[in-house]
Specification:
4 helices, mainly alpha
């Protein structure tokens, strides 16, 4: 039968790649929602790549730390690891796009 313990968690490199791709998707989704702060497809892609890469490098362990009410560490399943890491990359990519878009918009409005 199927044993959940046989599933190995994603390795560091695959999580980094997942967060980079998710960062790009998150940046483009945020650009669709925030029309006035858009600054081009290439710009959104670059910001998403950078944000996803940084979140994958610095936030991997923190994003997966799940503690129960008693304080013990909860071991996430493979699907939970995939979902949490993808969501983390997408959110960070979207936030980074919004920040960069806001700065660009405000600089162009002041000139």
């Amino acid at each position: 039968g199927f044993d959940r313990r046989e599933l190995k968690p994603l390795n560091w490199t695959s999580i980094l790649i997942l967060q980079v791709v998710s960062g790009v998707v998150g940046a483009h989704l945020a650009a669709m929602a925030l029309h006035q702060y858009r600054f081009g497809w290439v710009g959104h892609t670059l910001v998403g790549l950078l944000a996803g890469g940084l979140s994958g490098y610095f936030l991997q362990a923190m994003a997966l730390t799940v503690v129960t009410a008693s304080g013990s560490l909860n071991e996430p399943t493979l699907s939970e690891v995939f979902f949490v890491e993808a969501l983390t990359g997408a959110v960070v990519g979207g936030i980074a796009m919004a920040i960069v878009g806001f700065v660009i918009y405000e600089n162009s409005a002041n000139t």
